[in-house]
Amino acid sequence: MKAVKSLLKFQETKIGLVTAFAFLLIFFCIWMTAYNGITDRADNLKIGFVNEDGSLGLKIKETLVQKVPFDMQTYSSLQDAKQEMNERNLDMVILIPKDFSQSIQTNEEAKIEYFINQANASMAKQIMDNAAQNITKTVNENIYSYKQQVMLQNGSGQLTSLVPSQELTQVVSQNITQIVQSLNVNTVQSSVQKTNNAEGFAVTMVPMMMILASFVGSMIMSMNINIAAMKLKNTHGRWSIFSARLLLNLGASLLLSLLTILLMLVFNIEWKTSMLQTWIFQTFVFFSFISLTQMFVIVFGTGGMVFNIIFLSIQLVTSGVMVPKVMLPEFYQTISASLPATYAANGYYTVIFGGKELSGDMNLLLIISGITLLIAAVRLIFQKKAAQKSKVEAVNPVG
Fold first, then answer.
1. Which residues, if any, are the signal sequence (predicted)?
2. By three-state DSSP, how is residue 116 classified?
3. First and final CA of the chain: distance in angstroms?
């Protein structure tokens, strides 16, 4: 017991205990509020519809608009729809090919083509896979009913004009009905193409792994450098220490991103971008994470680690790796646009799966880094003014 009491006297022990409780409380509250009612927002997912066929394609579109629980947008060409999907504005594209009606009329196998973007959140890909199966089933049911009606109408009309005997007409009509009922229900087949695909389950976990590893590493690095900086405050100026931290952060970002490239090579992880571009992007990711975590410890001191824990949890939820951002509550969708993990995830989808360009996400990471550094610098300015004011008051005490 004496040893326990002795340990509790140290501030580091108390901070460690508080941190453990904070992790549990923060993660539980954020994840439960972010994912609450998430299935109710599946209608925020978007699919593109391209009709190259004509009449039957229009009827299918009308049916899907009524029955599919997603935001469906029509495109004039498959190329335009795919471009939107590569920009991650669509989760799936549906194509009704130009020979669809002809295949139905000639009793040949007709196909609906689905293009599902693999550079997307895991849940979105699963939902779209299931949606493709359900859409094909729905279309088959409608096509089956349509073919039954057409055959019965045509058969009845021809029998009335060609067969004089009413009894014979009834017998032949019954035979036609049996033939109609024996029609193949699964006239339409689905053809699913996974665009921006990458082989292997492990590869799909790279975006999440990199966000988690990079941000947690940045948290620990910022905390320890801040402790070291506090020890130097009596021998070095604030701006000298701040500049040194900036150089350390930049150097660490360059080296850590190089290590990332080497690890990806060792584990045979292929990327769709050039090695140089991937290295620069990862440098921006690390630097933005370090700048953000550093900002909190500069502004709030040791207490800034609580904010880092909060933002770790928020970024894991809102980055769009596990769950599409559009399925989150509006508050989390809004805040995700201001956090670096969102653009780190987008960039890693591009690196691993391909699609859009990296430049947009890299620019936003730089902007976030600049803003966090500016906030930290402003805090140092106010700290300096407060210190100068305290010195003046000490030299010239009131009264």
1. none
2. strand
3. 50
Does any domain span residue 289?
Answer: yes
If DSSP codes are grouped into helix, strand and coil, which group holds residue 106?
coil
Out of 161, 195, 229, a domain closes at 195
pLDDT in tens, 319-330: 988 888 989 999
Q: Which domain holds residue 214?
A: 8-28+201-390
Contact 379, 245 (CB under 8 A): no
Residue 307, φ and ψ in degrees, nearest 5? -65, -35
Give the pLDDT mean for 164-192: 56
CATH of the domain at 133: 3.40.1710.10
Residue 397 is assigned to a structural domain of this protein: no
Tokens representing residue 130 in the block: 């299931």
Query: Does the pTM of the predicted model rise above 0.85?
Result: no
The answer on 14 and 56 residing in a single domain is no
Percentage helix, strand, coil for the chain under 3-state DSSP, each rounded to 5 = 70, 10, 20
Beta bridge mates, 47: 72, 92
Lowest mean pLDDT among 7-16, 134-143, 144-153: 144-153
Residues 280 and 177 in one domain: no
Structural domain includes residue 399? no
Angle at 296 between CA 295 and CA 298, to 5 degrees: 65
Q: What sign does the CA torsion over 226, 227, 232, 238 have?
A: positive
pLDDT tens by residue, 10-63? 777 777 788 888 888 888 899 888 888 888 888 889 999 999 887 778 888 888
The β-bridge relationship of strands 46-51 and 92-96 is parallel
Which residue in the block uniquely carries the two structure tokens 């022990």?
13
Q: Is the pLDDT of residue 395 over 70?
A: no
For residue 256, give the H/E element and its range: helix 238-266
Q: Is 212 in contact with 196 (CB distance < 8 Å)? A: no
Is residue 111 in some structural domain?
A: yes
168 and 231 part of one domain: no
CA distance 180 to 10: 84
Q: Are residues 225 and 312 in the same domain?
A: yes
Question: Are 85 and 93 spatial neighbours (Cβ–Cβ below 8 Å)?
Answer: yes
Asked if 105 and 184 count as a contact pair (C-beta separation under 8 A), the reply is no
Check residues 33 and 203 and name the one with the higher pLDDT. 33
Read off the pLDDT of residues 218-250 as tens digits, 9 standing for 90 and up: 999 998 898 888 888 888 888 899 999 999 999
- Looking at this protein, which amino acid is placed at residue 85? M
